[in-house]
């Protein structure tokens, strides 16, 4: 056992002190204000926040303290002082001095604060309002002139600042610096004119800016989209989970009269702590978009979709799916329950293993990997890690809470981070990561050369690693060699759950191989079925390219898979379960409307494998979860799946449990030889920026306003050869098409060129037909 | 004149006192050679034994401060000189640096050697360009003379000395705000602990000393502990610079042993403006509670002033005669503190904003007697509640002026205006001026 392990596993020293006459024992390092909370003694505070470093700025939490008989000469800020043995603390409850000090501070805080609570977003849930009641005077003694500012100031398109409301607690600026690593807001000026501000024309450019609105203890920071829209006491709050990515954020959805007005980060120390990203917070307008589908539709003989009744539509869908060769595309956004419904529907109703949840670039190596490789890493492992390795994974863009967790340890313990990527992204730089440059397709040597990994190391790989043949196999070897913890972090919220639900061509629920007899018997027993199909089915690409007659599709954008997917699918009978009109409903023969996340209950499985359940926030919705519709459709076809409700699906899925039988080792995959590129050529690389053209971000312009600009990243050498300077236009093309964007000259791997995968003016599948690991031509535009 | 003990100011009247030649002619840089021949711990012990206390206001024993720096920790140590003199009334460091910058440079070399620092910084206030130039020149000359840089005087000690020019904020005289500012951030006081001795500049062990404290060290090295501690009082040893300003016939810096009284200093400085009598004064700059003519015989050392209810501070004696409206003077100071409050904590930021408004009304004769109690209560809510001592300094003159001159406040309210003629208090010629 190393020295470090001894120290971290040592029992924490406990400290006993007395607060207001009550003795309490807490771990060493606990702040007085926190120890008091444990006794149920609420000391008023503004700047204090348990996840931020103490500031001691607002002075609202002053208490009297003595240690071993020696009293501090003046009241102390309880948010800055750790408890000590023999400490006697007197809060406002027992010390007249502390009580007067707190009342004095409250009075001072209010002299310059406007009495605009009736129009302030925060009114009704405002720490200043509440504590002014508990700690303030009934009437102000201030007769002077209040400080005023022009208002509001947009510090970004999505966050507005009302400076006269600000109590200058510095929570927002500390969050930006300490938690997000985006110190783009600071306190400027001095004295009573001190104010939160941005630098000249540089807005608050952070994927996490919404958290500052949430932790602002007054109404100084407001969200542009929510400002003046609602009163907190008119909202009905529902605990929910975020549907945007696999980070697994706990959320709160606030609804008024059937309409979602805002979403907030929920508290879960094991997952998102108290934070979330701006996409999770603000991208929810898609559910009320104009192209929302509310009734079933059937394509008529003229090729037009016509509204239909549920019985008509179900009958039409059943007719098209019955007695034909069919497949199922689930998409990566299904809940566990819905994915389970699709999985069972494919096997029981359609009698096939032709099912895949991957609406993206994918490989069969990946299916093999996912069916055979234990994914062991968790957020807690990041907290303890000595080294975090990121491979084809950009946490800030692809799983933002994972980024925060790593950043926290970089900030606190300066842990080692290594990233295998074509260039150092902004996130990589913030993590102070050691960059191992690799062109797309050439990551394997970088993977096999990784050393210095231990059982305390965490290897996090992205779904994009499947784009390099052999890379996932190399990962299994790396893990076997090093004993490091492995995390596979897909972008979408439903992918990990879909694997567990068996929504893939090679596995049944609980990670049971379809080719394993006893595994099939397990599931067949639960499903009361005589037998289940035993041949591995077709995967996403195979289904699209196959001669199948019919495909049932739930929430898939064909442009996420390939440029010709739509055309190929249009030749088949398509049943589409969708919330909005899409490329699939365009070609579907039958369209069945389903509920959006806020309208249904269900659960996602985050990248750690932790189940994130949520209840319906909008209860009046007529729309039903996919599994309910599938169950009706199965009934109509005559091969019922008996999952009439989300609850039924959940309890049946939970009864299955994980496979404890033997696992097959992953098949070895050879890697491709290194590509050589010509002078005017490059290896294409890309990933999706957090904020991009993703359809779940539709309808939220304020959020889109903070998306990063689309650029082509090229190396200085290439820039020199092309004769272009930063921001000049560069054209990236192949036989399929071309994209022209301003270039950014960075220290990118020499043979590589990078573009955002699905951003404004840079939708790679649409424009180039490929996303990565492919040769393109690069020229000055 | 017998009471004066000119050491730092001994050669201020020589035309070339600020040059390295002038400084050396008068024995300058001889202490460095002596100190570098000693062990660093011996230097610390010597300064401890001398009883030298910080001249920046708080009076903390300088040698003890040096002794707090952890030794053998394999970390960089830093010596930072606080030359951000900016309190109203305080004018000792700037004249010293103007007339004798080399004494500070010599002190810095000795102090850095003692605490094992190879980098030292002088943080100087930016407005005093002429002083900045002289200190910069002194540093350059010291480098040229082999007194700074690598292998100083061939003794194997290296020291880089950097002059940093502040941007003009009173708060940067607070040592942790100074460190933030020196690091390139906005100057705001830091949370303590950690104290600078453990994690100061760039989170490394750091000593922050006032100009005068450091400048006093060469003389102590040269003349010894006995010489130094023979001056002053029991707990306040040595000589110091008293700065007299205001309604005094011969204002300026007077270097005398600690414990001298204002009565004695007034004798030396030609007394209160002719035809007028002392009304009130500050013992240590505007942030120390004011005194009146009953305090003429208070010994001006750390203990004496403290026992009389104020603080020795920077020994900045601002003298006000009977033509001065105390309400007006206090308002001016309060406006200074409002302007200089850094804004970090509530009581200082909001409190000074409010105090100015209340005092403005009172000076204009608006308000009722209860407003005085409100003012005192406000001061009570500010004093001792703020993050650093700036707000205490803001409240002190108000509280003390109300203690000694409450009736004068009331006179304003009775008259409905200020009963004083502000012109009468000015120091320039007023006859013929309308």
TrEMBL record, chain A:
Residues of the 4Fe-4S Mo/W bis-MGD-type domain: 235-291
Keywords: 2Fe-2S, 4Fe-4S, Iron, Iron-sulfur, Metal-binding, NAD, Quinone, Translocase
Cofactor dependence: [4Fe-4S] cluster; [2Fe-2S] cluster
A GO CC term attached to the entry: membrane
GO molecular function: 2 iron, 2 sulfur cluster binding; 4 iron, 4 sulfur cluster binding; metal ion binding; molybdopterin cofactor binding; NADH dehydrogenase (ubiquinone) activity; NADH dehydrogenase activity; quinone binding
Domain (4Fe-4S His(Cys)3-ligated-type) ranges: 97-136
Gene Ontology BP terms: ATP synthesis coupled electron transport
Annotated 2Fe-2S ferredoxin-type domain residues: 13-95
The keyword Iron belongs to this UniProt entry's keyword annotation: yes
Family: Belongs to the complex I 75 kDa subunit family.
NCBIfam families, alphabetized: NuoG, PRK07860.1
Stated name of the protein: Unannotated protein
Automatic annotation (TrEMBL), chain B:
PROSITE patterns (UniProt xref): COMPLEX1_51K_1, COMPLEX1_51K_2
Gene Ontology process terms (BP): cellular respiration
UniProt-recorded Gene Ontology molecular function terms: 4 iron, 4 sulfur cluster binding; FMN binding; metal ion binding; NAD binding; NADH dehydrogenase (ubiquinone) activity; NADH dehydrogenase activity; quinone binding
Reaction catalysed by this enzyme: a quinone + NADH + 5 H(+)(in) = a quinol + NAD(+) + 4 H(+)(out)
Domain NADH-ubiquinone oxidoreductase 51kDa subunit iron-sulphur binding: 327-372
Cofactor(s), names only, from the UniProt record: [4Fe-4S] cluster; FMN
Keyword Iron-sulfur (UniProt): yes
UniProt KW keywords: 4Fe-4S, Flavoprotein, FMN, Iron, Iron-sulfur, Metal-binding, NAD, Quinone, Translocase
Similarity comment: Belongs to the complex I 51 kDa subunit family.
Protein name: Unannotated protein
Taxonomic lineage: unclassified sequences, metagenomes, ecological metagenomes
């Amino acid at each position: 056992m190393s020295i470090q392990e001894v120290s971290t596993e040592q029992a924490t020293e406990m400290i006993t002190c007395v607060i207001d006459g009550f003795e309490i024992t807490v771990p060493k390092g606990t702040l007085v204000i926190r120890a008091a909370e444990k006794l149920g003694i609420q000391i008023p505070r503004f700047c204090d926040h348990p996840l931020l470093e103490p500031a001691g700025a607002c002075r609202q939490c002053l208490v009297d303290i003595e240690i071993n008989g020696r009293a501090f000469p003046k009241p102390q800020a309880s948010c800055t002082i750790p408890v000590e043995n023999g400490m006697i603390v007197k809060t406002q409850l027992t010390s007249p001095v502390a009580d007067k000090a707190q009342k004095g501070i409250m009075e001072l805080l209010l002299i310059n604060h406007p009495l605009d609570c009736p129009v302030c977003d925060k009114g009704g849930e405002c720490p200043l309002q509440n504590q002014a009641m508990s700690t303030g005077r009934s009437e102000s003694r201030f007769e002077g002139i209040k400080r005023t500012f022009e208002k509001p100031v947009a510090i970004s398109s999505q966050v507005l600042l009302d400076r006269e409301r600000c109590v200058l607690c510095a929570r927002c600026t500390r969050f930006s610096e300490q938690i997000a690593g985006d110190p783009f807001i600071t306190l400027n000026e001095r004295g009573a004119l001190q104010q939160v501000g941005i630098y000249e024309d540089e807005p608050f450019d952070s994927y996490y800016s919404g958290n500052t609105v949430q932790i602002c203890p007054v109404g100084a920071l407001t969200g542009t989209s929510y400002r003046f829209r609602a009163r907190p006491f008119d909202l009905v709050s529902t605990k929910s989970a975020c549907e945007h990515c696999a980070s697994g954020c706990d959320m709160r959805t606030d609804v008024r009269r059937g309409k979602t007005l805002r979403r907030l980060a929920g508290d879960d120390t094991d997952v998102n702590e108290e934070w979330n990203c701006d996409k999770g917070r603000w991208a929810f307008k898609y559910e009320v978009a104009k192209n929302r589908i509310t009734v079933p539709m059937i394509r008529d003989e003229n090729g037009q979709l016509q509204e239909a009744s549920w019985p008509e539509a179900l009958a039409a869908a059943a007719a098209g799916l019955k007695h034909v060769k069919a497949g199922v595309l689930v998409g990566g956004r299904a809940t566990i329950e819905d994915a389970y419904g699709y999985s069972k529907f494919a096997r029981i109703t359609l009698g096939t293993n032709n099912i895949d949840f991957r609406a993206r670039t994918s490989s069969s190596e990946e299916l093999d990997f996912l069916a055979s490789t234990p994914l062991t890493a968790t957020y807690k492992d990041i907290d303890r890690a000595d080294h975090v390795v990121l491979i084809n994974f950009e946490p800030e863009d692809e799983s933002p809470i994972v980024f925060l967790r790593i950043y926290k340890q970089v900030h606190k313990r300066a842990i080692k981070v290594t990233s295998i990527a074509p260039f150092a992204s902004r996130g990589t730089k913030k993590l102070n990561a050691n960059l191992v440059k690799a062109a797309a397709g050439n990551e394997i040597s970088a993977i096999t050369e990784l050393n210095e990994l231990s059982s305390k190391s965490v290897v996090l790989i992205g779904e994009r690693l499947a784009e390099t043949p052999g890379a996932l196999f190399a990962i299994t070897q790396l893990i076997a060699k090093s004993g490091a913890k492995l995390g596979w972090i897909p972008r979408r919220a439903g992918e990990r759950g879909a694997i567990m639900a068996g929504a893939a061509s090679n596995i049944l629920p609980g990670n049971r191989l379809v080719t394993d007899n006893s595994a099939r018997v397990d599931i067949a027993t639960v499903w009361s079925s005589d037998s289940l199909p035993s041949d591995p089915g077709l995967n996403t690409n195979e289904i699209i390219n196959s001669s199948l007659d019919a495909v049932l599709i739930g929430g898939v954008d064909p442009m996420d898979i390939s440029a010709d997917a739509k055309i190929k699918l249009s030749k088949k009978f398509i049943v589409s379960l969708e919330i909005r009109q899409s490329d699939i409903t365009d070609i579907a023969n039958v369209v069945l409307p389903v509920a959006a996340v806020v309208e249904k209950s269900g659960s996602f499985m985050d990248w750690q494998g932790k189940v994130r359940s949520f209840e319906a926030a909008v209860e009046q919705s007529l729309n039903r979860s996919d599994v309910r519709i599938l169950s009706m459709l199965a009934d109509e076809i005559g091969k019922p799946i008996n999952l009439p409700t989300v609850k039924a699906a959940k309890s049946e899925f939970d009864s299955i449990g994980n496979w404890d039988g033997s696992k097959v080792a992953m098949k070895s995959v050879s890697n491709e030889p290194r590509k050589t590129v010509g002078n005017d050529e490059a290896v294409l690389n890309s990933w999706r920026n957090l904020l991009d053209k993703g359809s779940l971000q539709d309808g939220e312009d304020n959020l889109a306003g903070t998306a990063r600009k689309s650029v082509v990243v090229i190396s200085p050498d290439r820039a020199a050869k092309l004769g272009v300077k930063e921001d000049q236009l560069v054209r990236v093309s192949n036989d399929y098409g071309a994209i022209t964007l301003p270039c950014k000259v960075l220290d990118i791997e020499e043979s590589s060129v990078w573009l955002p995968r699905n951003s404004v003016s840079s939708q790679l599948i649409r424009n180039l037909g490929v996303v990565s690991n492919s040769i393109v031509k690069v020229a000055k535009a | 004149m017998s009471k004066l003990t000119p050491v730092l100011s001994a050669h201020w009247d020589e035309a070339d006192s600020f040059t390295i030649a002038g400084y050396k002619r008068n024995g300058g840089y001889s202490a460095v050679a002596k100190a570098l021949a000693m062990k660093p711990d011996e230097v610390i012990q010597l300064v401890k034994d001398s009883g030298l206390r910080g001249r920046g206001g708080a009076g903390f024993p300088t040698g003890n401060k040096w002794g707090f720096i952890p030794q053998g920790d394999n970390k960089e140590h830093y010596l930072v000189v606080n030359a951000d003199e900016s309190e109203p009334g305080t004018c000792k460091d700037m004249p010293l640096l103007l007339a004798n910058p080399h004494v500070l440079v010599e002190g810095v070399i000795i102090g850095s050697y003692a605490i094992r620092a190879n980098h030292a910084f002088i943080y100087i206030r930016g407005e005093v360009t002429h002083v900045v130039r002289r200190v910069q020149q002194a540093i350059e000359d010291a480098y040229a003379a082999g007194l700074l840089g690598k292998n100083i005087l061939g003794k194997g000690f290296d020291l880089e000395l950097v002059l940093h020019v502040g941007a003009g904020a009173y708060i940067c005289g607070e040592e942790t705000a100074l460190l933030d500012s020196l690091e390139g951030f906005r100057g705001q006081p830091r949370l303590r602990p950690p104290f600078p001795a453990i994690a100061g500049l760039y989170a490394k062990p750091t000593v922050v000393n006032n100009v005068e404290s450091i400048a006093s060290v060469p003389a102590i090295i040269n003349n010894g502990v006995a010489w130094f501690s023979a001056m002053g009082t029991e707990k306040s040893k040595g000589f110091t610079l008293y700065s007299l300003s205001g309604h005094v016939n011969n204002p300026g810096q007077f270097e005398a042993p600690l414990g001298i009284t204002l009565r004695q200093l007034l004798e030396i400085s030609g007394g209160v403006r002719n035809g007028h009598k002392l009304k009130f004064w500050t013992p240590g700059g505007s942030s120390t509670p004011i005194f009146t003519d009953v305090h003429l015989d208070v010994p001006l050392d750390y203990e004496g002033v403290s026992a009389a209810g104020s603080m020795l501070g920077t020994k900045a004696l601002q003298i006000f005669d009977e033509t001065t409206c105390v309400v007006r003077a206090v308002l001016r100071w309060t406006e200074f503190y409002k302007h200089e409050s850094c804004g970090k904590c509530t009581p200082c930021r909001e409190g000074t904003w409010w105090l100015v408004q209340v005092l403005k009304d009172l000076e204009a004769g608006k308000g009722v007697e209860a407003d005085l109690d409100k003012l005192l209560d406000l001061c009570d809510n500010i004093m001792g509640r703020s993050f650093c001592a700036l707000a205490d300094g803001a409240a002190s003159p108000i509280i003390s002026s109300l203690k000694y001159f409450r009736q004068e406040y009331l006179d304003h309210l009775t008259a409905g205006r200020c009963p004083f003629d502000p012109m009468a208090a000015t120091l320039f010629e007023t006859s013929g001026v309308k």
